[in-house]
């Protein structure tokens, strides 16, 4: 019998350590920009800083799950077979939102192009850079651990709101590098938090339907990637995202497919699966 002492408040410890690790890395990212380092150095540091949640989870892992191996834990998050219907549904939802936002921005834009990227090479580079930072760097900790751990004692919907809030607050230092002040900064923060809370609810619903970390990674990737390639006012882009992702989240809450958001039976079965890890 394993008698290693477990961490009493793993979620709180994870969130705290994630922020402690992120702040110095974030300042290093800013330093590379201010000191005039090449763009690729900035991109590398930016990607590394996004992995702060994974670094925090790895550092705490032995105290959270005594006797288990971190690498095996991560592998298990990808072992379930992907359901084509789930991947197709999340892709269609986000593609639809992207097309609506693109249409709205194009009607309000006087620029020759509504896209920030003009070549396939740069598009592929941006896609991979985005994937290596946010989606891959953040989802192991926030969704692979925190979301599933918190669902052991709370409904998926309540868990989504809690995790979504703290995930959003983790971005706080970034808010003050946007250049916005006053009412513009308030609007940016408000729309950002609505977007991230709504996206978290969508992630939870579809992750619980498939139990493969590829699902939240895909949702995260499409969210960042689609916003990044549209040329337009950032506040407008975040506002449109907040509106349409919120609408999608509300629709999913109402439909509640297979009771994955607040159904007692399904919540308990999810908790049992994650409490019986060998």
UniProtKB/TrEMBL annotation:
Residues 122-226 form the CAAX prenyl protease 2/Lysostaphin resistance protein A-like domain. This is CPBP family intramembrane metalloprotease. Keywords: Hydrolase, Membrane, Metalloprotease, Protease, Transmembrane, Transmembrane helix. The keyword Hydrolase applies. The keyword Glycosyltransferase does not apply. It comes from the Bacteria. InterPro entries: MmRce1-like (IPR042150), Rce1/LyrA-like_dom (IPR003675). One of its GO terms (molecular function) is endopeptidase activity. The chain crosses the membrane at residues 12-31, 37-61, 82-105, 117-136, 157-176, 188-206, 237-255. It holds the Pfam family Rce1-like. One of its GO terms (biological process) is CAAX-box protein maturation.
């Amino acid at each position: 019998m394993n008698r290693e002492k477990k961490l009493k408040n793993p979620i709180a410890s994870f969130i705290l350590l994630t922020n402690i690790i992120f702040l110095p890395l974030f300042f290093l990212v800013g330093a590379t920009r201010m000191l005039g380092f090449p763009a690729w150095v900035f991109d590398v540091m930016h990607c590394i800083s996004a992995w702060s949640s994974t670094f925090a989870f790895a550092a705490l892992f032995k105290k959270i799950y005594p006797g288990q191996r971190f690498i095996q834990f991560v592998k298990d998050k990808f072992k379930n077979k992907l359901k084509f219907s789930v991947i197709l549904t999340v892709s269609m939802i986000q593609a639809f939102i992207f097309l609506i936002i693109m249409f709205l921005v194009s009607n309000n834009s006087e620029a020759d192009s509504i896209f920030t990227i003009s070549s396939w090479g740069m598009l592929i580079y941006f896609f991979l850079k985005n994937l290596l930072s946010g989606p891959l760097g953040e989802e192991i900790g926030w969704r692979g651990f925190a979301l599933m751990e918190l669902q052991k004692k709370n409904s998926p919907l309540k868990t989504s709101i809690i995790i979504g809030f703290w995930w959003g607050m983790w971005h706080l230092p970034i808010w003050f590098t946007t250049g916005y002040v006053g009412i513009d900064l308030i609007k940016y923060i408000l729309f950002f938090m609505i977007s991230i809370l709504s996206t978290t609810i969508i992630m939870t619903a579809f992750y619980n339907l498939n139990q493969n970390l590829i699902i939240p990674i895909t949702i995260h990737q499409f969210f960042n990637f689609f916003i990044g390639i549209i040329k337009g006012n950032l506040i407008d882009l975040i506002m449109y995202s907040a509106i349409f992702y919120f609408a999608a989240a509300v629709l999913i809450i109402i439909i509640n497919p297979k009771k994955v958001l607040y159904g007692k039976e399904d919540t308990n079965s999810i908790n049992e699966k994650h409490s019986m890890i060998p």
